[in-house]
Design a protein that fits this description.
elongated; 5 helices; 0% strand
Length: 82
């Protein structure tokens, strides 16, 4: 019985060594390096929940369309407030 147990552990050790070898090859490959590259998103979506915003401020008074706001004026107004 002791012989079967040692053979089993030997096969498990070979399997672990083989998996480590495959991981080492994969992590040093160009395919892995390409998979790490990310793209900057072109468009983002932000949908605030009016129910959660109601706690902080009246939603209807403070709502505005972002497309109508000039970004340069927006930043200038915020700098003046500080």
């Amino acid at each position: 019985m002791l012989g079967l147990k040692s053979v089993y552990f030997y096969l498990i050790a070979i399997q672990v060594t083989f998996i480590k070898f495959l991981k080492k090859i994969y992590f040093s490959s160009n395919r892995y390096n390409r998979s790490l590259k990310t793209k900057t998103p072109q468009q983002t979506y932000h949908n605030p929940n009016p129910f959660l915003l109601a706690i902080i401020t009246p939603y209807k008074k403070k709502s505005f369309k972002i497309s109508e706001v000039d970004p340069n004026l927006f930043w200038i107004k915020n700098k003046k407030k500080m």
